[in-house]
Every structure is written in structure tokens, then in C-alpha cells.
Specification:
- It contains no helices and 7 strands.
- It is mainly β.
- The strands form 2 sheets. Strands 3-2-6-7 form a 4-stranded antiparallel beta sheet, with no helix packed on it.
- A hairpin with a 7-residue loop joins strand 6 and strand 7.
């Protein structure tokens, strides 16, 4: 899986029911930073939703499906 965009943080983690971390940000699965705004991760996902979240203690910015008023 890869993610590329401009203006993204240095570190990105995966969270959600599709990951081993579940929705616990502190257990987020770290993606490998390839270059500015380019990340990669290899592993197994389960069925379910996930988000890409800037590594840190907050949920913003996050990237993924828009639900419940998220942008």
C-alpha cells in the first residue's frame, strides 16, 4: 500500500478496524517514510475501515473515508 500527496507530515500511522491497532491511535501501525509526502507499508489488513493519521497525539490531520462529519 502506498500514499502520496503534498503537505503531509513526516510520519503517518494506520488505524482502524482493518489494522491490528484498531481505533487506538497510540497503537497505530507506522508507515515507512520514503520521501517527502510518500509513505509505504507492507502487511496484512483485515476487512474494515482505516485512516491514515499524522503520527502524534491528535487525530488531525487524518486521511481516509469521510464519515460522521469528518473532512
Amino acid at each position: 500500500m502506498g500514499l502520496m500527496a503534498n503537505g503531509l507530515p513526516e510520519q503517518v500511522v494506520l488505524v482502524g478496524e482493518a489494522t491490528e491497532a484498531g481505533w487506538t491511535l497510540e497503537k497505530g501501525v507506522y508507515m515507512h517514510t520514503v520521501a517527502d509526502g510518500e509513505y509505504t507499508w507492507t502487511g496484512t489488513l483485515q476487512k474494515g475501515e482505516l485512516k491514515f493519521v499524522a503520527a502524534g497525539e491528535y487525530w488531525v490531520p487524518s486521511y481516509g473515508p469521510v464519515t460522521n462529519g469528518d473532512t
